[in-house]
Amino acid sequence: MLYWYRQFPNREPQYLLRKGFRAKEVITPYSDAAFATETESEKLSCNYSGSVESLHWYRQYAGSPPQFLILDYSGYVTHATPPVPGISISHRKEDKHVDLIISSSAVSDSALYYCALRPTVTGNTRTLYKNLKKY
Asked: Which residues form a coiled coil (predicted)?
C-alpha cells in the first residue's frame, strides 16, 4: 500500500492518494483536538485495528519536521534521544488503545501530535493520523 501526502510550510500534512490493497491495520485518533492549561496532565489517545507490534508518537512544530517522541515495540518502550521530559506511553493491547501522556503541560507542548503504526520520520506515512494539541 502506498500513500501520498503533501505538506506546505507551516501546515499539517495533507492526504492526497492511496494505491494498493486495503490495510489490515488502521490507527485513528480518539479525538481531533485536546486542550489543557499549563501544569495539567494531558492524554492524547489513538485506537487501532489489527495486530500491531510497534506504536510510535511524534510531535511537529509549525515549520519543522516531525520529531520522534516515544515508541512501544512489543511491550518495550524506547524514548527519543535525548528523552523528552514528561512524556510517557500507555498501551492497552486488550483494548487496542494507546495513549501519549504529557505529565505537566507547557506552552511549548503546543504542536501537532501523531500516532503511527510504522516509523514516519523515515518517510513511511502508511498509517499516519494526527492529534492536535492547542492552548
From this structure: none
Q: Please tell me the distance from the alpha carbon of residue 83 to that of residue 5, in angstroms, as a whole number.
A: 28
DSSP secondary structure code for residue 64 in this structure:
S
pTM across the whole model: 0.68
Residue spans per domain, the chain: 53-119
Contacting residues for 81 by C-beta, under 8 A, at least 6 apart: none
Domain 53-119: CATH superfamily is Immunoglobulins (2.60.40.10)
Work out the angle at residue 30's Cα, subtended by the Cα atoms of residues 25 and 32, and round it to the nearest 5 degrees: 115
For the stretch 19-42, pLDDT in tens is 655 556 677 777 666 767 777 788
